[in-house]
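Renewal narrative, Specific Aim 1. Our central claim is that a sequence can be written position by position from structural information alone. The example that follows is taken directly from our test logs and has not been curated for this report. It begins with the structure tokens describing the chain, in the order in which they were read.
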């Protein structure tokens, strides 16, 4: 079976989505990660759209695409000489350059958007194809019929035949014919029918690599892409990391890879880098991944209900169709109100604790009460349930004094530490960092590391309460806390002090238990 070609358009279609704009360095960082991931074709951008975009594509061509083994670096262009020339110039340092040009083919787009007759559209597509091949000497060309799924089937066959003829003459050229579902209008049967019709009725289609590019307006981008491969012999899939893209987005790379794994399609993607790639893109475009997102969501391999945890402990296949490790993820048996005795006991065992039968019954009862009263359960809650005692306020916040000077940020934090008043001073790259660095100086607990820090307002308005969520690791254990305050810095200090108090509880528990 041939390998399926992964064409990633995170940097082009993904970046076109509102809020997903990236600067030059961010684009280069993502391109580098896509190369590590094993993407075959990186669509680096649309050079004619702005000078910044031109520079980003040029840098990607030079820094990521300069070797023979580098991925193909692709640049998008409208079917205009000026556009393809820009694409050509931006790709000048790429060893394997591809120009991807497009023109609309649906009656609606041709009439309303382009104001051209179908014959004029064909003439333009053919002229530009020839220009790319003959004048610019590019041997790897992709042509897209924009809005293909709302175009007449016979018109598509006609334009594809002429474009293939224009772009590939002596058999040394590579021509890719892309069928985009530009507005996410199609559904699997219809899409497969269209592609098979094109395959049957376009004379020279065998000279081209068939590709699909699906948008997610109906939530069918992944299904349409997958079925095009399974039932219409498509060899290239156009995807984006986390499915970002125009409007409802594009087919998600992660989900297509997951499905290929189950269907047994071969490809060059190093699946173990999927999670970190998803996280990098999410961080750069500042779009959080919904927890229930397949494969890369926080909950994709989490199991909380008692019945599921019991099944997972007997055989992970009971509730996992993928091995999370294959995507750089791991299973998480989170402990909470629904996790049941078995999962809870497993966690106790993992913590190296042995409980008597009476202790077990008492602990579980207390633990259920804790779960009913709070959302983010951590390992300290388990110890509280065993002990039956609340976390003591070893450290208590009194006030802080911020100072912003030319040299940076400084915060003095005043704490009550077991009934004595102490002052600690910290500096940092902002007031929160400086405040946390001040509080850190007071903490006697060893080996604490901030794993997750989140600050947001829960309601709109500048008078909103600031919510801080903090996760701190202590070796293999996780301590969680949160705080609310109208002042963001106070909220961060309170959350951190709560973590410090919980860490102290943790230390005292194990010291006593020895
Ligand atoms: O959705 C679309 O039609 C596109 C083309 C440029 C391929 O993004
Ligand atoms: Zn698109």
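The sequence written for that structure reads:
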């Amino acid at each position: 079976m041939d390998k399926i070609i992964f064409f990633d358009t995170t940097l082009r279609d993904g970046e076109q989505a509102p809020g997903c704009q990236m600067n030059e360095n961010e684009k280069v960082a993502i391109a580098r990660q896509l190369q590590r991931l094993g993407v075959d074709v990186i669509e680096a951008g649309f050079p004619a759209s702005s000078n910044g975009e031109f520079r980003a594509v040029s840098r990607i061509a030079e820094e990521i695409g300069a070797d023979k083994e580098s991925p193909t670096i692709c640049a998008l262009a409208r079917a205009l000489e000026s556009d393809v020339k820009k694409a050509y110039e931006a790709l000048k340092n790429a060893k394997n350059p591809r120009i991807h040009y497009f023109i609309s083919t649906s009656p609606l787009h041709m009439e309303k958007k382009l104001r051209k007759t179908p014959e004029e559209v064909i003439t333009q597509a053919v002229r530009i194809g020839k220009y790319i091949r003959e004048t610019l000497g590019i041997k790897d060309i992709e042509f897209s019929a924009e809005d293909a799924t709302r175009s007449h089937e016979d018109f598509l066959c006609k334009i594809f035949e002429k474009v293939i003829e224009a772009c590939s003459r002596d058999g040394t050229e590579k021509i890719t014919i892309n069928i985009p579902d530009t507005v996410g209008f199609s559904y699997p049967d219809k899409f497969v029918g269209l592609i098979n019709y094109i395959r049957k009725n376009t004379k020279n289609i065998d000279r081209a690599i068939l590709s699909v590019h699906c948008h997610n307006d109906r939530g069918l981008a992944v299904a349409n892409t997958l079925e095009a491969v399974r039932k219409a012999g498509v060899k290239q899939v156009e995807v984006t990391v986390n499915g970002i893209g125009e409007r409802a987005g594009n087919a998600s790379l992660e989900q297509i890879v997951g499905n290929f794994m189950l269907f047994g399609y071969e490809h060059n993607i190093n699946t173990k880098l999927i999670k970190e790639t998803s996280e990098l893109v999410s961080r750069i475009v500042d779009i959080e991944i919904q927890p229930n997102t397949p494969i890369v969501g926080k909950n994709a391999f989490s199991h909380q209900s008692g019945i599921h945890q019991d099944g997972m402990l007997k055989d992970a296949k009971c509730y996992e169709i993928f091995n999370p490790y294959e995507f750089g993820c791991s299973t998480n048996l989170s402990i909470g109100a629904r996790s049941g005795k078995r999962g809870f006991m497993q966690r106790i065992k993992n913590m190296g604790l042995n409980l008597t039968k009476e202790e077990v019954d008492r602990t579980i009862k207390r633990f259920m009460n804790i779960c009913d009263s709070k959302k983010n359960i951590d390992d300290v809650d388990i110890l509280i349930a065993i002990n039956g005692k609340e976390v003591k306020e070893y450290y208590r916040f009194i006030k802080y004094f911020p100072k912003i000077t030319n040299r940076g940020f400084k915060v003095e934090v005043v704490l009550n530490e077991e009934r004595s008043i102490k002052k600690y001073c910290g500096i940092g790259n902002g007031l929160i960092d400086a405040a946390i660095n001040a509080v850190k100086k007071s903490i006697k607990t060893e080996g604490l590391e901030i794993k997750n820090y989140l600050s947001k307002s829960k309601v709109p308005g500048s008078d909103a309460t600031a919510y801080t969520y903090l996760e701190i690791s202590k070796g293999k254990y996780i301590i969680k806390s949160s705080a609310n305050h109208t002042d963001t810095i106070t909220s961060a200090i309170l959350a951190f002090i709560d973590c410090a108090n919980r860490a102290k509880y943790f230390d005292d528990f194990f010291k006593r238990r020895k």
